[in-house]
UniProtKB/TrEMBL annotation:
This is Cytochrome c oxidase subunit 1. It is a multi-pass membrane protein. It comes from the Bacteria. It is found in: Membrane. It holds the Pfam family COX1. Keywords: Electron transport, Heme, Iron, Membrane, Metal-binding, Respiratory chain, Transmembrane, Transmembrane helix, Transport. The chain crosses the membrane at residues 11-31, 51-77, 89-108, 128-152, 164-190, 210-235, 247-265, 285-307, 328-349, 369-389, 410-431, 455-478, 508-528. GO terms for molecular function: cytochrome-c oxidase activity; heme binding. GO terms for cellular component: membrane. Belongs to the heme-copper respiratory oxidase family. InterPro entries: Ba3-like_Oxidase_I, Cyt_c_oxase-like_su1_dom, Cyt_c_oxase-like_su1_sf, Cyt_C_Oxase_1, Cyt_c_Oxase_su1_BS. GO terms for biological process: aerobic respiration. CDD domains: ba3-like_Oxidase_I.
Length: 544
Protein backbone atom coordinates (compact mmCIF):
# COMPACT_ATOMS: atom_id res chain seq x y z
CA UNK A 1 0.00 0.00 0.00
CA UNK A 2 1.14 3.56 -0.76
CA UNK A 3 0.20 4.87 2.72
CA UNK A 4 -0.18 3.23 6.15
CA UNK A 5 -2.88 0.58 6.44
CA UNK A 6 -5.16 2.35 8.94
CA UNK A 7 -5.32 5.55 6.91
CA UNK A 8 -5.71 3.59 3.67
CA UNK A 9 -8.70 1.59 4.96
CA UNK A 10 -10.45 4.69 6.22
CA UNK A 11 -9.88 6.69 3.01
CA UNK A 12 -11.03 3.74 0.96
CA UNK A 13 -14.26 3.47 2.96
CA UNK A 14 -15.10 7.04 1.91
CA UNK A 15 -14.21 6.52 -1.74
CA UNK A 16 -16.16 3.26 -2.08
CA UNK A 17 -19.20 4.73 -0.30
CA UNK A 18 -19.02 7.65 -2.70
CA UNK A 19 -19.27 5.28 -5.66
CA UNK A 20 -22.10 3.31 -4.03
CA UNK A 21 -24.28 6.42 -3.79
CA UNK A 22 -23.03 7.60 -7.19
CA UNK A 23 -24.59 4.45 -8.68
CA UNK A 24 -28.03 5.18 -7.19
CA UNK A 25 -27.73 8.83 -8.23
CA UNK A 26 -26.85 7.80 -11.78
CA UNK A 27 -29.93 5.57 -11.99
CA UNK A 28 -32.13 8.47 -10.83
CA UNK A 29 -30.45 10.66 -13.47
CA UNK A 30 -31.15 8.14 -16.22
CA UNK A 31 -34.83 7.89 -15.28
CA UNK A 32 -35.13 11.65 -15.13
CA UNK A 33 -33.64 12.14 -18.61
CA UNK A 34 -35.85 9.44 -20.10
CA UNK A 35 -38.99 10.91 -18.50
CA UNK A 36 -38.27 14.47 -19.59
CA UNK A 37 -37.43 13.28 -23.08
CA UNK A 38 -40.84 11.56 -23.27
CA UNK A 39 -39.24 8.12 -23.70
CA UNK A 40 -40.79 6.52 -20.58
CA UNK A 41 -43.45 7.40 -18.03
CA UNK A 42 -42.95 6.73 -14.35
CA UNK A 43 -45.26 4.40 -12.41
CA UNK A 44 -47.89 6.16 -10.26
CA UNK A 45 -45.92 5.68 -7.05
CA UNK A 46 -42.83 7.55 -8.23
CA UNK A 47 -42.87 11.30 -8.68
CA UNK A 48 -40.57 13.14 -11.11
CA UNK A 49 -39.49 15.57 -8.39
CA UNK A 50 -38.63 12.67 -6.15
CA UNK A 51 -36.03 11.34 -8.60
CA UNK A 52 -34.86 14.88 -9.36
CA UNK A 53 -34.19 15.36 -5.65
CA UNK A 54 -32.52 11.95 -5.32
CA UNK A 55 -30.27 12.71 -8.30
CA UNK A 56 -29.27 16.19 -7.08
CA UNK A 57 -28.72 15.19 -3.46
CA UNK A 58 -26.82 11.99 -4.22
CA UNK A 59 -24.60 13.39 -6.96
CA UNK A 60 -24.14 16.96 -5.76
CA UNK A 61 -23.98 16.51 -2.02
CA UNK A 62 -23.28 12.87 -1.19
CA UNK A 63 -20.97 11.49 -3.92
CA UNK A 64 -18.85 14.63 -3.92
CA UNK A 65 -18.51 15.00 -0.13
CA UNK A 66 -17.61 11.34 0.48
CA UNK A 67 -15.13 11.32 -2.38
CA UNK A 68 -13.50 14.59 -1.37
CA UNK A 69 -13.03 13.55 2.26
CA UNK A 70 -11.56 10.18 1.19
CA UNK A 71 -9.18 11.76 -1.32
CA UNK A 72 -8.09 14.48 1.09
CA UNK A 73 -7.40 12.04 3.91
CA UNK A 74 -5.34 9.84 1.58
CA UNK A 75 -3.38 12.81 0.24
CA UNK A 76 -2.66 14.07 3.75
CA UNK A 77 -1.55 10.63 4.86
CA UNK A 78 0.82 10.65 1.88
CA UNK A 79 2.25 14.13 2.50
CA UNK A 80 2.33 14.53 6.31
CA UNK A 81 1.05 11.17 7.75
CA UNK A 82 -2.01 10.98 10.01
CA UNK A 83 -1.96 10.66 13.82
CA UNK A 84 -4.20 7.95 15.33
CA UNK A 85 -6.75 10.51 16.53
CA UNK A 86 -7.20 11.82 12.98
CA UNK A 87 -7.98 8.33 11.72
CA UNK A 88 -10.49 7.82 14.55
CA UNK A 89 -12.18 11.13 13.75
CA UNK A 90 -12.17 10.07 10.11
CA UNK A 91 -14.14 6.93 10.96
CA UNK A 92 -16.52 8.83 13.24
CA UNK A 93 -17.16 11.36 10.47
CA UNK A 94 -17.87 8.51 8.06
CA UNK A 95 -20.45 6.97 10.43
CA UNK A 96 -22.28 10.29 10.94
CA UNK A 97 -22.21 11.11 7.22
CA UNK A 98 -23.43 7.65 6.29
CA UNK A 99 -26.22 7.68 8.84
CA UNK A 100 -27.33 11.17 7.72
CA UNK A 101 -27.30 10.14 4.08
CA UNK A 102 -29.41 7.05 4.78
CA UNK A 103 -31.95 9.22 6.62
CA UNK A 104 -32.13 11.71 3.75
CA UNK A 105 -32.39 8.98 1.11
CA UNK A 106 -35.09 7.17 3.10
CA UNK A 107 -37.29 10.27 3.23
CA UNK A 108 -36.75 10.92 -0.46
CA UNK A 109 -37.71 7.31 -1.23
CA UNK A 110 -40.97 7.61 0.70
CA UNK A 111 -41.75 10.78 -1.23
CA UNK A 112 -41.56 13.01 1.83
CA UNK A 113 -38.71 15.18 0.63
CA UNK A 114 -39.17 16.17 -3.02
CA UNK A 115 -37.64 19.59 -2.40
CA UNK A 116 -34.58 19.25 -4.67
CA UNK A 117 -31.01 19.69 -3.54
CA UNK A 118 -31.56 23.42 -2.98
CA UNK A 119 -34.26 22.72 -0.31
CA UNK A 120 -36.15 25.73 -1.67
CA UNK A 121 -38.74 26.93 0.86
CA UNK A 122 -41.71 27.20 0.88
CA UNK A 123 -41.51 23.62 -0.45
CA UNK A 124 -41.56 21.61 2.73
CA UNK A 125 -39.95 18.22 3.44
CA UNK A 126 -40.13 15.85 6.36
CA UNK A 127 -37.96 17.11 9.25
CA UNK A 128 -35.96 13.88 9.02
CA UNK A 129 -34.76 14.88 5.58
CA UNK A 130 -33.37 18.14 6.95
CA UNK A 131 -31.90 16.38 9.96
CA UNK A 132 -30.27 13.74 7.72
CA UNK A 133 -28.75 16.43 5.48
CA UNK A 134 -27.51 18.31 8.54
CA UNK A 135 -25.85 15.14 9.82
CA UNK A 136 -24.10 14.79 6.47
CA UNK A 137 -22.60 18.24 7.02
CA UNK A 138 -21.80 17.58 10.69
CA UNK A 139 -20.05 14.33 9.70
CA UNK A 140 -17.92 16.28 7.23
CA UNK A 141 -17.01 18.72 10.03
CA UNK A 142 -15.89 15.82 12.22
CA UNK A 143 -13.81 14.41 9.37
CA UNK A 144 -12.46 17.92 8.77
CA UNK A 145 -11.53 18.15 12.45
CA UNK A 146 -9.45 15.00 12.01
CA UNK A 147 -7.54 16.58 9.13
CA UNK A 148 -7.17 19.89 10.97
CA UNK A 149 -5.73 18.02 13.97
CA UNK A 150 -3.18 16.28 11.74
CA UNK A 151 -2.21 19.63 10.25
CA UNK A 152 -1.81 21.43 13.58
CA UNK A 153 0.29 18.55 14.94
CA UNK A 154 2.50 18.69 11.87
CA UNK A 155 2.97 22.44 12.26
CA UNK A 156 3.91 22.06 15.90
CA UNK A 157 6.64 19.61 14.91
CA UNK A 158 7.75 21.64 11.90
CA UNK A 159 7.70 25.23 13.07
CA UNK A 160 8.49 27.84 10.44
CA UNK A 161 8.15 25.35 7.61
CA UNK A 162 5.67 25.80 4.77
CA UNK A 163 3.38 22.81 4.65
CA UNK A 164 3.38 20.51 1.62
CA UNK A 165 1.23 22.02 -1.14
CA UNK A 166 -1.42 19.29 -1.06
CA UNK A 167 -1.90 19.63 2.70
CA UNK A 168 -2.12 23.40 2.34
CA UNK A 169 -4.85 22.95 -0.28
CA UNK A 170 -6.79 20.61 2.01
CA UNK A 171 -6.69 23.19 4.78
CA UNK A 172 -7.74 26.02 2.48
CA UNK A 173 -10.70 23.95 1.24
CA UNK A 174 -11.66 23.13 4.83
CA UNK A 175 -11.56 26.79 5.88
CA UNK A 176 -13.92 27.56 3.01
CA UNK A 177 -16.16 24.62 3.93
CA UNK A 178 -16.43 25.47 7.64
CA UNK A 179 -17.43 29.07 6.95
CA UNK A 180 -19.76 28.27 4.05
CA UNK A 181 -21.65 25.54 5.86
CA UNK A 182 -22.52 27.98 8.65
CA UNK A 183 -25.09 29.44 6.24
CA UNK A 184 -26.90 26.18 5.56
CA UNK A 185 -26.58 25.12 9.21
CA UNK A 186 -28.34 28.35 10.27
CA UNK A 187 -31.03 27.77 7.65
CA UNK A 188 -31.60 24.22 8.88
CA UNK A 189 -31.44 24.86 12.61
CA UNK A 190 -33.31 28.16 12.86
CA UNK A 191 -35.70 27.89 9.94
CA UNK A 192 -36.38 24.60 8.16
CA UNK A 193 -36.23 22.08 11.03
CA UNK A 194 -38.47 24.04 13.49
CA UNK A 195 -40.87 24.87 10.67
CA UNK A 196 -41.11 21.31 9.35
CA UNK A 197 -41.74 19.98 12.89
CA UNK A 198 -44.60 22.52 13.11
CA UNK A 199 -42.97 24.50 15.95
CA UNK A 200 -43.21 27.64 13.78
CA UNK A 201 -46.08 28.32 11.39
CA UNK A 202 -44.31 30.12 8.61
CA UNK A 203 -40.87 30.51 7.07
CA UNK A 204 -39.05 33.65 5.92
CA UNK A 205 -38.43 32.61 2.31
CA UNK A 206 -36.16 35.52 1.34
CA UNK A 207 -33.87 34.81 4.28
CA UNK A 208 -33.84 31.06 3.69
CA UNK A 209 -32.73 31.49 0.08
CA UNK A 210 -30.04 33.97 1.09
CA UNK A 211 -28.68 31.55 3.66
CA UNK A 212 -28.81 28.70 1.17
CA UNK A 213 -26.76 30.59 -1.45
CA UNK A 214 -24.34 31.81 1.21
CA UNK A 215 -23.51 28.10 1.27
CA UNK A 216 -24.55 27.09 -2.25
CA UNK A 217 -21.96 29.02 -4.20
CA UNK A 218 -18.90 28.13 -2.12
CA UNK A 219 -20.24 24.58 -2.32
CA UNK A 220 -19.31 24.58 -6.02
CA UNK A 221 -15.74 25.55 -5.13
CA UNK A 222 -15.71 22.89 -2.43
CA UNK A 223 -16.23 20.51 -5.39
CA UNK A 224 -13.72 22.28 -7.61
CA UNK A 225 -10.82 22.78 -5.19
CA UNK A 226 -10.08 19.05 -4.72
CA UNK A 227 -10.10 18.71 -8.52
CA UNK A 228 -7.64 21.62 -8.68
CA UNK A 229 -5.57 19.96 -5.94
CA UNK A 230 -5.24 17.00 -8.32
CA UNK A 231 -4.49 19.28 -11.30
CA UNK A 232 -1.72 21.04 -9.36
CA UNK A 233 -0.20 18.05 -7.55
CA UNK A 234 -1.09 14.76 -9.21
CA UNK A 235 -1.43 15.52 -12.94
CA UNK A 236 2.08 17.08 -13.23
CA UNK A 237 3.59 13.99 -11.60
CA UNK A 238 1.63 11.66 -13.89
CA UNK A 239 2.90 13.40 -17.03
CA UNK A 240 6.46 13.57 -15.73
CA UNK A 241 6.48 17.27 -14.83
CA UNK A 242 6.77 19.52 -11.81
CA UNK A 243 4.53 21.92 -9.93
CA UNK A 244 4.66 25.10 -12.01
CA UNK A 245 4.71 27.52 -9.07
CA UNK A 246 4.16 26.81 -5.40
CA UNK A 247 3.23 30.43 -4.60
CA UNK A 248 0.84 30.79 -7.53
CA UNK A 249 -1.00 27.62 -6.52
CA UNK A 250 -1.36 28.86 -2.94
CA UNK A 251 -2.55 32.31 -4.05
CA UNK A 252 -5.23 30.56 -6.17
CA UNK A 253 -6.58 28.74 -3.11
CA UNK A 254 -6.46 31.87 -0.94
CA UNK A 255 -8.46 33.74 -3.59
CA UNK A 256 -11.08 30.99 -3.43
CA UNK A 257 -11.28 31.38 0.35
CA UNK A 258 -11.80 35.13 0.03
CA UNK A 259 -14.11 35.34 -2.96
CA UNK A 260 -16.26 32.19 -3.00
CA UNK A 261 -18.70 33.26 -0.31
CA UNK A 262 -19.55 36.93 -0.84
CA UNK A 263 -20.98 36.17 -4.30
CA UNK A 264 -24.16 34.17 -3.55
CA UNK A 265 -26.56 36.79 -4.95
CA UNK A 266 -25.49 35.91 -8.50
CA UNK A 267 -27.88 32.97 -8.05
CA UNK A 268 -30.61 35.40 -7.04
CA UNK A 269 -30.20 38.18 -9.60
CA UNK A 270 -33.83 37.94 -10.72
CA UNK A 271 -35.25 37.65 -7.20
CA UNK A 272 -37.27 40.25 -5.37
CA UNK A 273 -36.32 41.22 -1.81
CA UNK A 274 -32.65 42.04 -2.50
CA UNK A 275 -31.78 45.49 -3.75
CA UNK A 276 -29.90 45.93 -7.04
CA UNK A 277 -27.02 47.63 -5.24
CA UNK A 278 -26.16 44.48 -3.31
CA UNK A 279 -26.57 42.32 -6.38
CA UNK A 280 -23.99 44.44 -8.20
CA UNK A 281 -21.53 44.05 -5.32
CA UNK A 282 -21.88 40.27 -5.61
CA UNK A 283 -21.55 40.36 -9.41
CA UNK A 284 -18.32 42.38 -9.16
CA UNK A 285 -16.88 39.91 -6.64
CA UNK A 286 -17.96 36.99 -8.86
CA UNK A 287 -15.88 38.43 -11.68
CA UNK A 288 -13.04 38.37 -9.13
CA UNK A 289 -13.52 34.68 -8.37
CA UNK A 290 -12.99 33.92 -12.07
CA UNK A 291 -9.37 34.98 -11.61
CA UNK A 292 -8.08 31.91 -9.70
CA UNK A 293 -9.48 29.69 -12.45
CA UNK A 294 -7.78 31.80 -15.13
CA UNK A 295 -4.54 31.41 -13.16
CA UNK A 296 -5.11 27.66 -13.01
CA UNK A 297 -5.63 27.51 -16.77
CA UNK A 298 -2.39 29.46 -17.23
CA UNK A 299 -0.37 27.26 -14.92
CA UNK A 300 -1.81 24.01 -16.37
CA UNK A 301 -0.83 25.14 -19.87
CA UNK A 302 2.61 26.09 -18.58
CA UNK A 303 3.10 22.64 -17.02
CA UNK A 304 1.99 20.88 -20.20
CA UNK A 305 4.25 23.06 -22.31
CA UNK A 306 7.27 22.49 -20.07
CA UNK A 307 6.77 18.69 -20.18
CA UNK A 308 6.15 18.67 -23.95
CA UNK A 309 9.22 20.78 -24.70
CA UNK A 310 11.37 18.61 -22.43
CA UNK A 311 10.23 15.67 -24.58
CA UNK A 312 11.35 17.51 -27.73
CA UNK A 313 8.11 19.17 -28.86
CA UNK A 314 8.42 21.86 -31.54
CA UNK A 315 6.17 24.73 -32.65
CA UNK A 316 3.66 26.73 -30.63
CA UNK A 317 1.29 23.89 -29.78
CA UNK A 318 3.53 20.90 -30.56
CA UNK A 319 3.67 20.03 -26.86
CA UNK A 320 0.07 18.79 -26.96
CA UNK A 321 1.28 15.87 -29.10
CA UNK A 322 3.61 14.73 -26.31
CA UNK A 323 1.00 14.28 -23.60
CA UNK A 324 0.17 10.71 -22.43
CA UNK A 325 -3.40 10.34 -23.74
CA UNK A 326 -3.24 6.54 -23.29
CA UNK A 327 -2.91 6.96 -19.52
CA UNK A 328 -6.35 7.15 -17.93
CA UNK A 329 -4.90 8.97 -14.90
CA UNK A 330 -4.16 11.86 -17.26
CA UNK A 331 -6.81 11.37 -19.94
CA UNK A 332 -9.86 11.62 -17.63
CA UNK A 333 -8.87 14.87 -15.87
CA UNK A 334 -7.66 16.31 -19.19
CA UNK A 335 -11.12 15.79 -20.68
CA UNK A 336 -12.44 17.54 -17.56
CA UNK A 337 -10.12 20.49 -18.20
CA UNK A 338 -11.37 20.78 -21.77
CA UNK A 339 -14.98 20.88 -20.51
CA UNK A 340 -14.05 23.55 -18.04
CA UNK A 341 -13.16 26.05 -20.76
CA UNK A 342 -16.77 26.45 -22.10
CA UNK A 343 -18.05 25.92 -18.55
CA UNK A 344 -16.10 28.95 -17.34
CA UNK A 345 -17.34 31.05 -20.25
CA UNK A 346 -20.88 29.96 -19.35
CA UNK A 347 -20.30 31.01 -15.74
CA UNK A 348 -19.26 34.49 -16.85
CA UNK A 349 -22.37 34.72 -19.01
CA UNK A 350 -24.51 33.65 -16.03
CA UNK A 351 -23.13 36.29 -13.77
CA UNK A 352 -23.44 39.13 -16.26
CA UNK A 353 -26.58 40.78 -14.95
CA UNK A 354 -28.47 41.32 -18.21
CA UNK A 355 -27.51 37.97 -19.73
CA UNK A 356 -28.62 36.25 -16.54
CA UNK A 357 -32.14 37.42 -17.32
CA UNK A 358 -31.99 35.39 -20.54
CA UNK A 359 -30.67 32.17 -19.03
CA UNK A 360 -31.92 32.16 -15.43
CA UNK A 361 -34.25 29.28 -14.60
CA UNK A 362 -33.82 27.87 -18.10
CA UNK A 363 -32.22 24.51 -18.71
CA UNK A 364 -29.06 26.39 -19.78
CA UNK A 365 -28.18 26.55 -16.07
CA UNK A 366 -28.58 22.77 -15.82
CA UNK A 367 -26.22 22.49 -18.80
CA UNK A 368 -23.75 24.80 -17.03
CA UNK A 369 -23.58 22.73 -13.89
CA UNK A 370 -23.29 19.48 -15.77
CA UNK A 371 -20.12 20.64 -17.52
CA UNK A 372 -18.66 22.14 -14.35
CA UNK A 373 -19.34 19.67 -11.55
CA UNK A 374 -20.65 16.86 -13.79
CA UNK A 375 -17.68 16.98 -16.19
CA UNK A 376 -14.65 19.00 -15.04
CA UNK A 377 -14.97 17.78 -11.45
CA UNK A 378 -16.48 14.32 -11.99
CA UNK A 379 -13.97 13.35 -14.71
CA UNK A 380 -11.13 14.45 -12.46
CA UNK A 381 -12.55 12.35 -9.61
CA UNK A 382 -12.79 9.34 -11.95
CA UNK A 383 -9.17 9.90 -13.02
CA UNK A 384 -8.14 10.00 -9.34
CA UNK A 385 -10.16 6.86 -8.50
CA UNK A 386 -8.27 4.89 -11.17
CA UNK A 387 -4.98 5.26 -9.28
CA UNK A 388 -6.24 5.89 -5.75
CA UNK A 389 -8.22 2.68 -5.27
CA UNK A 390 -5.47 0.24 -6.36
CA UNK A 391 -2.84 2.33 -4.65
CA UNK A 392 -4.72 2.15 -1.31
CA UNK A 393 -5.39 -1.56 -1.79
CA UNK A 394 -1.89 -2.56 -2.82
CA UNK A 395 -3.04 -3.64 -6.28
CA UNK A 396 -1.98 -2.85 -9.84
CA UNK A 397 -3.61 -0.46 -12.26
CA UNK A 398 -3.29 -2.87 -15.17
CA UNK A 399 -3.09 -2.04 -18.88
CA UNK A 400 -6.58 -3.50 -19.27
CA UNK A 401 -7.90 -1.20 -16.54
CA UNK A 402 -6.30 1.77 -18.32
CA UNK A 403 -8.12 0.78 -21.52
CA UNK A 404 -11.44 0.20 -19.72
CA UNK A 405 -10.99 3.57 -18.03
CA UNK A 406 -10.41 5.35 -21.32
CA UNK A 407 -13.54 3.76 -22.82
CA UNK A 408 -15.52 4.81 -19.72
CA UNK A 409 -14.13 8.35 -19.99
CA UNK A 410 -15.08 8.53 -23.67
CA UNK A 411 -18.65 7.45 -22.93
CA UNK A 412 -18.90 10.14 -20.24
CA UNK A 413 -17.36 12.79 -22.51
CA UNK A 414 -19.58 12.07 -25.51
CA UNK A 415 -22.69 11.63 -23.34
CA UNK A 416 -22.03 14.89 -21.55
CA UNK A 417 -21.31 16.74 -24.81
CA UNK A 418 -24.65 15.62 -26.24
CA UNK A 419 -26.68 16.13 -23.07
CA UNK A 420 -25.29 19.43 -21.91
CA UNK A 421 -24.96 20.73 -25.47
CA UNK A 422 -28.70 20.13 -25.88
CA UNK A 423 -29.35 21.75 -22.49
CA UNK A 424 -27.41 24.90 -23.34
CA UNK A 425 -29.11 25.19 -26.73
CA UNK A 426 -32.59 24.60 -25.32
CA UNK A 427 -31.93 27.16 -22.60
CA UNK A 428 -31.39 29.78 -25.26
CA UNK A 429 -34.76 28.80 -26.76
CA UNK A 430 -36.29 29.50 -23.34
CA UNK A 431 -36.93 25.93 -22.15
CA UNK A 432 -37.41 25.99 -18.33
CA UNK A 433 -35.37 23.87 -15.93
CA UNK A 434 -36.95 21.74 -13.17
CA UNK A 435 -39.94 20.58 -15.23
CA UNK A 436 -41.43 17.16 -15.69
CA UNK A 437 -42.29 15.95 -19.22
CA UNK A 438 -44.62 18.49 -20.80
CA UNK A 439 -45.56 19.73 -24.25
CA UNK A 440 -47.39 22.69 -22.70
CA UNK A 441 -50.78 21.42 -23.89
CA UNK A 442 -49.32 20.63 -27.29
CA UNK A 443 -48.37 24.22 -27.92
CA UNK A 444 -46.36 24.34 -31.19
CA UNK A 445 -43.45 25.98 -29.37
CA UNK A 446 -43.45 23.31 -26.66
CA UNK A 447 -43.63 20.58 -29.31
CA UNK A 448 -40.72 22.09 -31.23
CA UNK A 449 -38.48 21.52 -28.18
CA UNK A 450 -39.14 17.80 -27.99
CA UNK A 451 -36.43 16.70 -30.43
CA UNK A 452 -33.79 18.35 -28.26
CA UNK A 453 -35.29 16.80 -25.13
CA UNK A 454 -34.88 13.41 -26.82
CA UNK A 455 -31.28 14.26 -27.65
CA UNK A 456 -30.75 15.10 -24.01
CA UNK A 457 -32.13 11.68 -23.05
CA UNK A 458 -29.72 9.96 -25.48
CA UNK A 459 -26.81 11.78 -23.80
CA UNK A 460 -28.21 10.63 -20.45
CA UNK A 461 -28.18 6.98 -21.57
CA UNK A 462 -24.50 7.23 -22.57
CA UNK A 463 -23.71 8.79 -19.22
CA UNK A 464 -25.49 5.99 -17.42
CA UNK A 465 -23.51 3.38 -19.36
CA UNK A 466 -20.36 5.21 -18.37
CA UNK A 467 -21.43 5.27 -14.71
CA UNK A 468 -21.97 1.50 -14.76
CA UNK A 469 -18.55 1.01 -16.36
CA UNK A 470 -16.98 3.25 -13.72
CA UNK A 471 -18.48 1.23 -10.90
CA UNK A 472 -17.35 -2.04 -12.51
CA UNK A 473 -13.83 -0.66 -12.95
CA UNK A 474 -13.78 0.55 -9.33
CA UNK A 475 -14.86 -2.90 -8.08
CA UNK A 476 -12.21 -4.58 -10.25
CA UNK A 477 -9.47 -2.30 -8.89
CA UNK A 478 -10.69 -2.77 -5.34
CA UNK A 479 -11.07 -6.54 -5.27
CA UNK A 480 -9.80 -8.29 -8.37
CA UNK A 481 -6.79 -6.50 -9.87
CA UNK A 482 -3.46 -8.33 -9.36
CA UNK A 483 -1.67 -7.58 -6.11
CA UNK A 484 1.19 -5.12 -6.61
CA UNK A 485 2.00 -1.46 -6.52
CA UNK A 486 0.32 1.57 -8.02
CA UNK A 487 2.03 4.90 -7.69
CA UNK A 488 0.39 7.61 -5.56
CA UNK A 489 1.31 10.52 -7.84
CA UNK A 490 2.17 13.58 -5.80
CA UNK A 491 4.47 16.20 -7.32
CA UNK A 492 5.68 17.74 -4.09
CA UNK A 493 8.14 20.60 -4.04
CA UNK A 494 11.31 20.30 -2.02
CA UNK A 495 11.36 22.09 1.30
CA UNK A 496 13.86 24.54 -0.19
CA UNK A 497 11.40 25.58 -2.90
CA UNK A 498 8.50 25.72 -0.44
CA UNK A 499 10.39 27.97 1.93
CA UNK A 500 10.65 30.62 -0.81
CA UNK A 501 6.86 30.95 -0.76
CA UNK A 502 5.81 34.03 1.24
CA UNK A 503 5.02 33.07 4.81
CA UNK A 504 1.86 35.18 4.87
CA UNK A 505 0.13 32.76 2.51
CA UNK A 506 -0.10 30.28 5.37
CA UNK A 507 -1.26 32.81 7.93
CA UNK A 508 -4.86 31.66 8.17
CA UNK A 509 -5.85 34.36 10.67
CA UNK A 510 -5.20 37.08 8.10
CA UNK A 511 -7.30 35.41 5.40
CA UNK A 512 -10.14 34.50 7.72
CA UNK A 513 -10.24 38.11 8.97
CA UNK A 514 -10.41 39.48 5.42
CA UNK A 515 -13.08 36.91 4.57
CA UNK A 516 -15.12 37.95 7.62
CA UNK A 517 -14.85 41.57 6.49
CA UNK A 518 -15.98 40.74 2.94
CA UNK A 519 -18.90 38.71 4.29
CA UNK A 520 -19.92 41.54 6.57
CA UNK A 521 -19.83 44.05 3.72
CA UNK A 522 -21.66 41.89 1.20
CA UNK A 523 -24.15 40.06 3.44
CA UNK A 524 -24.44 42.10 6.64
CA UNK A 525 -27.08 44.60 5.61
CA UNK A 526 -29.04 42.29 3.22
CA UNK A 527 -29.47 39.69 6.00
CA UNK A 528 -30.45 42.35 8.52
CA UNK A 529 -32.91 43.76 5.97
CA UNK A 530 -34.36 40.30 5.23
CA UNK A 531 -34.97 39.75 8.95
CA UNK A 532 -36.27 43.19 9.91
CA UNK A 533 -38.32 44.01 6.83
CA UNK A 534 -39.44 40.47 6.07
CA UNK A 535 -42.69 40.07 4.15
CA UNK A 536 -45.26 37.86 5.90
CA UNK A 537 -43.78 34.37 6.23
CA UNK A 538 -44.93 31.60 3.90
CA UNK A 539 -46.95 28.75 5.42
CA UNK A 540 -45.22 26.17 3.24
CA UNK A 541 -46.25 23.51 0.74
CA UNK A 542 -45.87 19.92 1.85
CA UNK A 543 -44.34 17.87 -0.94
CA UNK A 544 -46.24 14.69 -0.09
FE1 LIG B 1 -21.60 28.18 -11.74
C1 LIG B 1 -25.03 28.34 -11.44
C2 LIG B 1 -21.46 31.53 -12.29
C3 LIG B 1 -18.13 28.02 -11.86
C4 LIG B 1 -21.71 24.97 -10.52
N1 LIG B 1 -23.08 26.90 -11.10
C5 LIG B 1 -24.43 27.16 -11.07
C6 LIG B 1 -25.13 26.02 -10.54
C7 LIG B 1 -24.17 25.08 -10.23
C8 LIG B 1 -22.90 25.65 -10.62
C9 LIG B 1 -24.40 23.73 -9.60
O1 LIG B 1 -23.32 33.93 -11.94
C10 LIG B 1 -26.63 25.87 -10.43
C11 LIG B 1 -27.18 26.13 -9.06
C12 LIG B 1 -28.69 25.92 -9.09
O2 LIG B 1 -29.14 24.76 -8.94
O3 LIG B 1 -29.42 26.89 -9.27
N2 LIG B 1 -20.10 29.52 -12.07
C13 LIG B 1 -20.25 30.84 -12.29
C14 LIG B 1 -18.94 31.46 -12.50
C15 LIG B 1 -18.02 30.46 -12.39
C16 LIG B 1 -18.75 29.25 -12.10
C17 LIG B 1 -18.67 32.90 -12.79
N3 LIG B 1 -20.21 26.77 -11.31
C18 LIG B 1 -18.84 26.91 -11.42
C19 LIG B 1 -18.19 25.70 -10.98
C20 LIG B 1 -19.20 24.84 -10.60
C21 LIG B 1 -20.46 25.53 -10.82
C22 LIG B 1 -16.69 25.49 -10.96
C23 LIG B 1 -19.13 23.46 -10.05
C24 LIG B 1 -18.02 22.80 -9.84
N4 LIG B 1 -22.98 29.63 -11.88
C25 LIG B 1 -22.70 30.95 -12.06
C26 LIG B 1 -23.96 31.72 -11.96
C27 LIG B 1 -24.98 30.82 -11.72
C28 LIG B 1 -24.33 29.52 -11.66
C29 LIG B 1 -24.14 33.17 -12.11
C30 LIG B 1 -26.47 31.13 -11.50
C31 LIG B 1 -27.22 31.05 -12.77
C32 LIG B 1 -28.70 31.25 -12.52
O4 LIG B 1 -29.23 32.26 -13.00
O5 LIG B 1 -29.35 30.44 -11.85
C33 LIG B 1 -16.51 30.62 -12.51
O6 LIG B 1 -15.88 30.14 -11.33
C34 LIG B 1 -15.96 29.95 -13.71
C35 LIG B 1 -14.47 30.27 -13.93
C36 LIG B 1 -13.85 29.29 -14.88
C37 LIG B 1 -12.96 29.61 -15.83
C38 LIG B 1 -12.42 28.50 -16.72
C39 LIG B 1 -10.91 28.26 -16.57
C40 LIG B 1 -10.50 27.06 -17.37
C41 LIG B 1 -9.67 26.08 -16.93
C42 LIG B 1 -9.38 24.90 -17.83
C43 LIG B 1 -8.02 24.96 -18.46
C44 LIG B 1 -7.86 23.94 -19.52
C45 LIG B 1 -6.72 23.34 -19.86
C46 LIG B 1 -6.69 22.31 -20.95
C47 LIG B 1 -5.43 23.67 -19.20
C48 LIG B 1 -12.51 30.97 -16.09
C49 LIG B 1 -9.01 26.12 -15.59
C50 LIG B 1 -6.21 23.00 -22.21
C51 LIG B 1 -6.19 22.08 -23.37
C52 LIG B 1 -6.52 22.43 -24.66
C53 LIG B 1 -6.34 21.43 -25.76
C54 LIG B 1 -7.11 23.76 -25.02
Amino acid sequence: RSIDRRSAEMSLAYVLTAFFFFGIGALAGLLQGLVRGGVITLPEWINYYQILTAHGVLMGLVFTTFFIVGFFYAGMAKTITLPKLSVKLGWLGWVVMFFGTVMAVATISTGEASVMYTFYAPLKASPWFYIGSTLLVIGSWIAGAGMTYAYTQWRKQNTNQRSPLFTFMVMATLVLWYVATLGVAAEMLFQLIPWSFGWTDTVNVVLSRMLFWFFGHPLVYFWLMPAYAAWYNCVPKIIGGKIFSDSLARVVFILFILLSIPVGFHHQLTEAGISEKWKIVHVALTLGVVLPSMMTAFSSFATFEAVGRAKGARGVFGFFKKLPYGDVRFFAPFMGMLFFIPAGIGGIINTSNQMNVVVHNTIWVTGHFHITVGAAVALTFFGIAYWLIPSLMGRQLTKGAHRAGIIQTLFWTVGMLIMSGAMHFMGLLGVPRRTDYTTYMDDPLGLSWMKYETLMAIGGVLLFISAVLMICNAIYLWKFAPVGETEFPMAENSLEVRQQTPRILENWKVWIAILAFLILVSYGYPIYDAIVHAPPGAPGMKTW
